Structure formats: structure tokens, C-alpha cells
Amino acid sequence: MKFTGLTQQEVLLNRTKYGKNSLTDIPPKPLWFKVLNGFRDPMIMILMVALLVQLVLFFCGKAEWYEPAGVFAAIIIANGVAAIFEHKQEGKASALKHAANAKEKTKVVRESILQEIPLDEVVVGDIVFLQAGDKIPADGVLREGTLKVDQAALNGESEEAPKSATQETDAFHAKDLLNPHSIYRGTVICSGEAYEEVSSVGDNTIFGQAALAAQEAPRATPLQVKLKRLANQITLFGYIGAAIIIAIVLLHAILSGNAPQDWSGWLKLVLDAVTVAVTIIVCAVPEGLPMLSSILQAIQSLKMVKDNVLVRKIHGLETAGSLSLLYSDKTGTITEGKLSVVELTTGSGTRIQDPTTLSDDLQNALVLGIGANNSAIASNGNVLGGNGTDRALMAFLLKHGLAEKISKDALLESRPFDSNKKCSSILVKEDDHQVTYWKGAPERILERCNAFLQDDGTTAPLHSIDPMMAYLDEQAARSMRLLAVAKSEGTAEDAPLTLVCILCIRDNVRKEVRYAVKDIHGAGIQVVMVTGDRKETAVAIAKEAGLLSSPEDIALTSFELAEKSDEELKAILPHLRVVSRALPLDKSRLVRLAQEREMVVGMTGDGVNDAPALRKADVGFAMGSGTEVAKEAGEITILDDNLSSIEKAILYGRTMFKSIRKFLIFQLTVNVAAVFTCAIGPLFGVNIVMTVIQLLLVNLAMDTLAAIAYGSEPPLQEYMNEPPVPRNESIVTRKMLTQVILGAAYITLLCLGILFVPCVQNFIGIPIVDGVLDTTYRGATVFATFMMAITFNGFNARTEHLNPFEGIGRNLPFLAIMGIIFAMQFVFVTFGGEALSVEPLSPETWLKCLALAFLVIPIDIVRKSL
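User: That's the sequence. What structure does it adopt?
Assistant: C-alpha cells below.
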């Protein structure tokens, strides 16, 4: 063997000096950290204050044990759901990654012996033996042999890069992916055999550096920004409301002449006021809100798998719904990601899609020229082996039933692709003479042609190649990859050629992409195609996909991008549609500038080179066929690599955001009505209108079920006709606030009427015992009416249309859950007893409370109509 490789001592020395070939994996935060971090949420913090006060009241004998226990349970449930869901998702991803790494092995020469070792054990200086199909384990240079390498994992392009052994005098830049001597970790050998000398391992490889960059912390999502602002507002409302209530209770006692005469009386009065204040805090805080997005995303995520969308990170879905700009790869996302023969043109200029219409002689020449002269093979209806071009040619023959005509019995010699001559050839025996068939670059082959095969298979002189050259220019403008097939008599390398045909090959635009782009544009989302292709090809693809449709639309190359300052690029960003010859750093810069314009940015990608931009974007869409590094960097994996699936992800995200807003209308109506009811009650002598435990039941048990009900709302295509919600727009709109205030006002007046208005009490049938109103029965009636009214208001919240029951048949779980909530209300009131401060109601009272509660629906219909 020519190479002796490293000794065991040199291996240990190099591993110590340069490090291992493993990638640094920043571990996810442990579950306990996620739970503790959740206590920083403003709404959890205000509940902690309420818990502390409840504990003080309990030890002072002013509260039952189950009241602080209920607040504590609310904190744990509200804070734990999101943390547990995210922790489980991260654990699954980490386990899959480590299992995949453990299986990777590579072949190295050490002490003159070729041996197979785990990929992580490769060190700098190792001699690695590489064959077709191998994944390169570390960065290095070729010392012997030639290779064709698929570097799509690093540069995003499917065109194979030729690599050859370097000489000591060769000058090249090791970080230039296009240099002919360096190879890189994560890329794949398409053909050839070679020996590599490793120069960089682990985090020092280009792959490793991209993987590290992909683990940077992303910025807050649009929903997190909106919910944080809302939480701060609600928290402030709760604190101020509690302080005002304490002041009102104390002033009421003083001004009414009932002020205490000693310190124990004052202590009792203050404790009573604090009890009311804690009730107000619990009323004000929507305990279900911290876990709302977790529940909704879990429900939507299950629905999305059938549409080839896998949500890997908990916040990815809601961010997709807020997108205002999407940077998309070309290969595999807008295009099919595989080459195919689009058209065949004979020397006569006839354009053909179906080769079976050719004459027998021309057909046989085609089969020999692209079938026998091909490194791919057809087997059982599938194409195996070969490079992308050869697979496309073989698939073309297979599609039209010509692959079965391929016979290599007459094959005398096969000459592989020669990068200098830009062609490959085979020598075959036809009858009693030898014929060479050529396949390669049209400009090289046409300049040697002095004849061509006519459509009937006969040979005619070729007087001028100008018409064919014009055809080549025309097809190049359509982003076609062109290939010529010709033949010559005998074995001479410089013999004149007879043209058989010109083949047009292209990575076709997906059929559904134009419709997907139209829908995404209709949703107010800008789409920019970012590709490593040359500008002419990128522009042609963009026009066909519907991305370039206006004179104002701009296409730039990476070089043109680099020439512009950040401010200049920001100015033209709204008109940017194509970036060609793009580098990984271009993608990260484009994301950063869009985010500085307060846009919500999405990025698609499949390679290691895409990982930093995927991570930096507000939502990263990793392709299912892509690298694990890209999938870990992205929030959502598109299993079929299709732009139309991204459109579905956007629709599901918008549906989820709509569901959150619907839930907030429901939840805030509950909270505002409860706050005003419990705040006004003490002014008229009823200090405890609803207990802390009653309110926690409403906010947790009922609201959790309501979150599931709204999470089951179907995605409606009408959501894609609306513009994206700006990142800094409040999650609660003026229209929502009007609906909340009107609904809460009616529910508050209804509850206060039951508490204080005799005619309402007589209508409902609240009993009078020994001349005194049954206050426990009255409290149970208020609690039952309050719960039923907010449940009916749930129908108002589920749609912006006039009819609150419109489309209810498409969300049967909503009806089922609302039915469960009504049943729970009956159970709470009938069997709650002392713990809930209630007693059973008569059937007559239930029916009258139900009728009064139902009126919240026609009241909101009037609001919508106005």
C-alpha cells in the first residue's frame, strides 16, 4: 500500500493537539430549569403573590387549607405544561441524533492497514479511503485519485464538484468550496475512489462551524412578544385593582361609621380587605394563558403531520402564521430537486417530447448514445447509480419504454467523462464496423460535426451550426442544461462527427408551486428565492414560478448584494425577489436586515450551510431530505420539501393565532366580568361574591377545555386572504376589546342583579328562610349563571361572522367540549358543597339562569351587526 498512515502514538498525539472529530452539542436546558424559568412569567409571579397572601390568611385562620393548595396547583399546572412538552420534543430530537451518529463509520489507513473506525475517532493527519456513496468524515485534501462530490449539504447546489489529487506546487484556498483539491465533512462521494489527508476535524471543519452557529439562541417570537405585553398589562391591572379594592373596603368602613375601635378589629378588617384583593388578583390573571399556546400547538401539530409538516419546536407554528417574508431555496423546494429530460431536438430542428415517435435508426442511435453510454442502470422500473445527468437520461428512456432496448453486448470500450474534452464516449460494433458514440457539451461536439441524422434516420451534411447555436442560446435562457449526442466512424479521437440530437435537461419547477406562490403572495407575504445558481437560470425559474412578475421586482447576485450597504439593501428589500450565486453569509445578512425592518422572517434550507440562517430566522423550515444539522436548526420540518406544504404551515399558524385570539376573547371576558363583579360586590356589603377556589375552577378546568375547543377549529382558506399581523401589533385589537367589554358588562350586570335586585331574585326563585334571603343559594345561583353565560359567550368568540353557529359542524369537538363544560357546571354546583360554597339549585332556577345566560348571544349579534 502506498500510504502507511498514522501510528497509534501519532493518533493519540494529534487527538490531544487538534481535538476529536465530534461536534460540540450544546445540550438543551434541563426540565427543572425550564420549570424554574417559567416562574419569571409576570402572570405566574402575581399568582405567587396571591399564594403567599393565601398562606398568611390560612395561618391566621381566615382561609381554608384548600384555598392556598388550589392556587399552588394552578401555578404548577400553568407553568408545567409548556415546559414538559418542549422538554419531550427536545429529548426525542437528541436521541435520534445520537443514534444516527453512533452508526457512522469510515475507512482509514493506519500503520499500513486499512481499517474501519467510528467517525468520531478520525484525527488530523489520518489517511481516509473514500469510495462512491461514502460521506466524507472530515475536511482535508486529496492525495491520490479523483472524485465527483455532491456538496449540496454545504452550498445547496446539486451540481457535482470534480476533485483531484493535489501536488505540492498547487495553490488553492482550502475554504473555497469550488477549489478542485479540498473536500469537506458532510458532503457525499458520487463517483470515483481517492485517499484524503485530514486537515480539520470536529468543530474546526466548515460543517462543524455551521453546526455551532446553528445553536445560537433565536429572538423572541411574535406571539411571545404579544403575550408578554398582554401579561404585563394584566398583571398591572391586577395589582392596581387589588390596591384600589383594599382602599375602597377600608374607606367604606370608615365613611359608613363602622371603623374598628381596636387593633384586632383593624387587623380583621385589613385581612378581609386582603382576602377580597386576592380574589381580584385571581380574577384578573388568566391562569390558563401560559399553557394555552402549548395546548393549541400540540393539537395543531397532530393535524399537520398528514400535510407533511412536522413541528419540531413549540413556537414554530405560531410564528409561521405571522410571516411577512419568506426566503426560499430553489432546488427541491421551488423545483423538483431532480433533473429530467424536457425536450429532444434533432439536427433537422424538430422538437420532440416522446422519443418513440422517432424513426427506428434515430431511435437506436439515441438508445446507444444515452443508454449504453451511461453510468446509471435501469432495474425493475427504477434507476440505480450514476450521477444526476445520467439518471435523468436513463429515466427518460425508462419512461418511454426504450430502456429495454439497451444492450451492451456490442460494447467494445467505454471512456468516462473527460473534463478537458467535456464529453464521454463508448465504442460499439455495428454490423462489420466500429462506431463511437459521444455524449457531452453541445458547443464542443457541434464544432466537430459535419453531418446530422435527419428525422427519417438518413445522414445529411451539416452546412452551418448557427441555427443549432441559436437554439442553445434560447434554451439556456430557459435555464436548460444542454447535452449533445453524436457518433463517428472508427476509433479516431479527432474524427468528424454526425449529430444525433440535442437534449434539454432541467430541474423542473414543481407543478403546484405557481399556485402556492400566488396564495402566499395573496396572504401578504413576500417570497424571495435564494439560490447558488447563476443569475440567468435563477431569473428563468423565478419567472416560471410566478416570483418575478412586475418591472419593479429585483434580482441580485451575491456580488451585487455585497456591494450594497445595509441601508441601501433595506431600501430595496420590499422589491427583492431573487438572490443568485448566494453564499451562506448572504442568507444570514438578509435575515438580519429584514428583522431590523421589524419583519417576521422565514427561511427554508436543507444543508449545513443553511443552518445559521435557519436558526437566526424567526421560523426555520428545514427540508425533510436535508441534513440533521439543518433540521435541528429549524423549527418546522417540511417532510416533502414542497413550497405548498410551507403554505399549509402558514395557514395552520394563522389558524392557531386566530384560535389564540378567540380564546383571549373568551378568557378576558371571564376575567373582566369576574373582576368587576367581585370588586363592586363589597361596595354593597357582599365582600366575597365568588371564592378563590370557584375562580380557579373557572380559570383552569373550564379554560383548559376551552383552549382545546378553540384548538380544534378548522383551518379556513379565508385566513390566507388577510395581511400578516405586524410583529409589534397588540394581540388584543380594538374590536376584540369592544367585544370583551360588552360581554363582560352584561355578565357583570346579570350577576349583580342576582345579588342585589329583588325582582331578579324573585324571578329566579331564590328562597327566603325565616325572613332572610338564603345567601348560599344566592351565591350558588350567581356562580351557575356566571359559568353558563361565559360558556354561551364562547360561541360568540369562535367566529367574527354574524351567526355564532356558522360552520359549527366542522368543529364537532367544540360542541362536545361545551357540552362537557355545561355538565361540569352542574356537577360543581350540585355536589360542590362547602368546598365551593354552593348548594344544589332547583330545576326551575337552572332553566331561568340558563335563559338569562343565553341572552349574551343575541346581545353580541347586535354588536356585530352594528
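Residues 359 and 456 are 5 Å apart (CA to CA).
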